[in-house]
Amino acid sequence: MAGPPLWLQAVSAVVLTVGVVVWAWSVLLILTKVRAGELVRTGPYLLVKHPLHMSVALLALPWLGFLLGTWLGALIGIALYAASRLLAPAEEADLAGRFGPEWEAYCRRVKIPWL
Fold this sequence. Notes:
Blueprint: H1 6-34, H2 51-68, H3 72-99, H4 101-109
Helix pairs in contact: 1-2, 2-3, 3-4
């Protein structure tokens, strides 16, 4: 059986790299700022409201495409992201309760609030 096309391997590698970088950066910020009781508003959190959720989906997207030459990885990534969006309202309510006006200001400033 032939491997996946070269273009699919290249796209998968780029998506995987972005997912790993955003995930690691988000985890580092959470470990440093959240432990200090701060609201994370820097790094990938400047662009998207839930970069950790987004990066997990990006980690899943390329694997099956890269390894098996199938689009099933995209479906799994989309499903993971959709599941994270189901959990987001509870997380956002908790953050609003803990940070109040600071959270509201962050929500107005984030570039892509739905992601």
